[in-house]
Amino acid sequence: MTEEPVEYGRDRLCCRRPAAAMRTSYSQRCLGPNVYPEVPEGGWGWAVAVAFFLVEVCTYGTLKSLGVFLQDLMEEFGESNSRVSWVFSICVFVFTFTAPLSMMLSNRFGFRPVVVMGGILISLGTITSAFSSSINDMYISVGVVSGLGCCFAFLPTVTLLAQYFSRQRALVTSVASSGESFAIFAFAPALFALKKHIGWRYCLVVLGTFQASVIGCGLLLRPIIIEPEPLKEQENEQSGTSMSSEDSGVTSLSTSNEDVRTAGAENQAEAGPLRPSTSKLGLDFSVLKDGAFIWYSLFGLFATLGFFAPQLYIIELSKSRGVEAGVASYMLSVMAGAEIFGRLSIGVVLNKVPCRKTLVLLGCVILLCLVLVAFALVWEFWGLVVCCALYGYFMGTVSSTHIPMLAEEDVVGIEKMASSVGVYVFIQSFAGLAGPPLGGVLVDVTKNYGAAFYSCAAGMGLSAICLALVGPTKSGMCQRPSRHEEEGRSTEEEEKMSQDSGQSDFLEVDFRHAAHRDHVSVI
Known about the structure:
Elements: E1 3-8, E2 13-18, H1 19-31, E3 34-36, H2 45-65, H3 70-77, H4 81-97, H5 99-109, H6 111-129, H7 135-163, H8 169-176, H9 179-211, H10 214-219, E4 224-226, H11 229-248, H12 254-271, H13 291-303, H14 309-320, H15 325-328, H16 330-352, H17 357-377, H18 381-399, H19 417-446, H20 451-468, H21 470-475, H22 483-522
Parallel strand pairs: 3-4
Antiparallel strand pairs: 1-2
Helix pairs in contact: 2-7, 2-8, 2-9, 4-7, 4-19, 5-6, 5-7, 5-19, 6-7, 6-9, 8-16, 9-16, 11-12, 13-19, 13-20, 14-16, 16-18, 17-18, 17-20, 19-20
């Protein structure tokens, strides 16, 4: 084994370290966790932000662009709207349903290998779907395989990104999540033009090859450890004390070591999420006891009904309203362009508003609900363009903030985000499974693509009600005190009354003594 000289110390005493150890140390510095004394508000977090941008392009961006192939799949396999829409529904369901599995694997093996595996599955599922002989084959390839890959790639990346930022978290996550909007803006017209030359099957092969870039994004994910400075100083002092104790023959330092560990725990609690969870499952199911989290999860459940169906049916809705097929594909681009502005603006607004951030999100959800209703009422080209722009804008504000909002103290806080995000997205999965098929059934029954938008509006309206209850529940206004708390309060009141009665008895006795002394003195 080759050795390389290493100089250290004041006298530069030379020793030799094995080259393998040097390479191990170098790889540890490049691939190991980043250690900061506090949340860095950047640093390697910018590389994670770029990775998240590309992951958004390859997951949500491509998934919402598949509406370009809706009519082709119906004609190729002779299926109805509702049957074809199950391809996207199963993908969304698996995407969200396997969120706890994704977070458990991330907490057990780290973010990097899970995201790399996700990139492999996404690419594999999309490419194999090009060779499908029936719609059932696409249920497996796109629905299950690609859906699982999207979950493995998306959740660990957004969770790690939130840990690199604190004050700028809302702004950075909003900008990075705009990758979804850029993908829809570019992919919709590009895929529509490309399939005319090479067909929809080869388009899926090209798309799946591009999605393999998620593998490189996974390699950029370095975990973060926050180790406050006071803890480091105490450890250095402790090591110095240990050396002097060895020289003087002192061998017992258990008390001081315990103090250092206690101080370190206190510093770690103040700094927020410092190290990966030590839970066996890697998930914190105790959040299900939090009323605010329950209402927020119900908000996400109902809001998901309006997240995917509009992008899936907007092209066919436009064609049914007299818009040419080539022009109708640009409706997705209008949505995507407006969504970019929505994502950027909401990040700036949330960084400056003095009120609860959930209230800002509530306003955006209410306006989004009204826009979904307007889709079913508009019958002209420019009306559809305005609706697409408004929907894209408010969709950008909601979709880019509803998951990072978990890190805010209004919901669960940054310390519980890594474990609660899996539970939150898992609850969303059932609406993701029902949303597109429900719209498809309404379209098949009414023969009107506008009917699909009514189901989206209904779900968004229910989500607004649930989100409005998060704040009062968090502040305790909607919580009924438990029996244990009531018993504790009654016990405290009894003790207080007994203390007051004791003081009054004391004063009464004191007054009697004083009166007796005055009487004796008069006699």
